[in-house]
TrEMBL record:
Residue ranges occupied by any Hint domain in the UniProt entry: 191-297
Example GO BP: intein-mediated protein splicing
Organism for this UniProt entry: Coprobacter fastidiosus
Name this protein carries in UniProt: Hint domain-containing protein
Pfam families cross-referenced by the UniProt entry: PT-HINT (PF07591)
Length: 405
């Protein structure tokens, strides 16, 4: 619009942001060079791409040109597609940061999916969401659609109450999921492994990780004491994954799972804040070119590149537990990495499941718990859950049998 509020340029887009047409009295001048287009994203006229602050997006293919920097941040399986835009649902979501999507009516989804003000579940669910969308298109007030739906339900709302309660209800939803998120960050790391053929610094020299057996001795290091010593392998683990990180260090390729901690002794930034392993331990997926890693001989090596890989077919990966120091060295150069205890992680998940069976669990937490159980190889059945039963409590069935039995 011009200074008088008259429209001089108009753009038409498809659902993915591709420019279909430019019209208006200034379409050939201002319209051609205007840098802010679809959803207010910055538009590069020369390439036809949008810049979403963290990375470029190509509306012609509906994909980002570089991988997401926060794996799984968008929730569900779509969150692990590192190049997908808005979980492949551009109608209902936007991604102005290039890292995390938000929904058109996310406030209402939080309320409908989790709670009502008095602790009872709102039975309207999808109907309420649809009513909200319909009210946007029809330009009618929320009360015209919301009140009839909620009448004779647990709680009747008007538009004022909606505004007053939204913040409170979202706070409740965050509080309900906080135990899982906090415990996940502080007590757990996922099954951490390397592909077959990865060299491990053992007592007799370099050995492929898949050949390491219980009782073998490998070189280990304690950042707390500065001691390097041969330590015994107490357990070995074999898993599968379809996600890997390719690191290039000293010209050597290391293929590991994204969560495996590497030791960066001088790292003090936020990347290490959620590990609970002490300062300096960074996930492979969080490493950056230029990071300095610790080597067996006490020297350092610089990370040359970091690449995340999604595989079509899962590959077998290996890990083991080391007594006392819980660390070992990999690759011909001898990079220091941490080890974890997957069985302990499984026990934590099982305990959570039993606790939640007694206290009740929301749909969101139930699915989050199941996803963790899958990730940590907790044996049992396929996922599933019943509907809400009187408020916050939920009956669960067909979850991993070792979680709820």
């Amino acid at each position: 619009m011009n200074a008088n509020g008259v429209e001089v340029v108009s753009y038409a887009y498809d659902a993915w942001g591709k420019v279909l047409s430019v019209s208006g009295s200034l379409s050939s001048t201002v319209g051609a060079v205007n840098p802010f287009r679809y959803r207010g994203y910055y538009y590069d006229v020369e390439t036809g791409w949008y810049y979403l602050n963290a990375r470029y997006y190509d509306p012609n293919v509906g994909r980002f040109l570089s991988p997401d920097t926060i794996l799984g941040a968008n929730g569900g399986l779509q969150g692990y597609n590192l190049f997908a835009y808005c979980n492949n649902n551009p109608v209902m979501f936007a991604d102005p940061s290039g890292m995390c999507i938000y929904g058109t009516f996310s406030d209402f989804q939080f309320i409908c999916n989790d709670f009502s003000a008095d602790g009872h579940c709102l039975k309207c669910g999808q109907q309420w969401s649809n009513a909200y969308i319909k009210s946007l298109f029809d330009s009618k007030g929320l009360p015209d659609y919301v009140d009839p739906i909620l009448k004779n339900r647990y709680w009747a709302l008007n538009s004022c109450k909606i505004q007053q309660q939204t913040a409170k209800l979202r706070a409740k939803a965050r509080a309900a999921t906080e135990p899982i998120q906090k415990a996940y960050a502080e007590e757990m790391s996922t099954v951490l492994c390397f592909v077959a053929g990865t060299a491990v610094k053992a007592e007799e020299g370099d050995r492929a990780i898949e050949e390491i057996k219980v009782g073998d001795r490998v070189w280990s290091y304690s950042p707390e004491t500065g001691e390097t010593a041969l330590k015994q392998v107490t357990r070995t683990f074999v898993n599968e994954t379809d996600r890997l990180v390719r690191l290039i260090v000293n010209g050597e390729e290391i293929l590991t799972t994204p969560e495996h901690p590497f030791y960066v002794p001088h790292s003090v930034d936020e990347r290490a804040s959620d590990w609970g392993l002490g300062s300096g331990w960074l996930r492979a997926a969080d490493l950056r070119a230029g990071d300095v890693l610790y080597l067996l001989d006490g020297s350092s090596a610089i990370v040359e590149s970091v690449e995340q890989i999604l595989l079509d077919v899962p590959v077998t990966v290996y890990n083991f537990e080391v007594e006392h120091f819980h660390s070992y060295f990999v690759s011909p150069s001898g990079l220091l990495v941490h080890n974890t205890c997957p069985d302990e992680n499984q026990k934590i998940i099982q305990k959570w499941g039993k606790d939640y069976k007694k206290t009740g669990i929301s749909e969101n937490d139930a699915m989050a718990l199941w996803e963790l159980a899958v990730e940590y190889n907790v044996p049992g059945h396929a996922p599933g859950y019943d509907s809400y039963k009187y408020g916050y409590h939920m009956k669960i069935y067909n979850y991993h049998i070792n979680i709820i039995s």
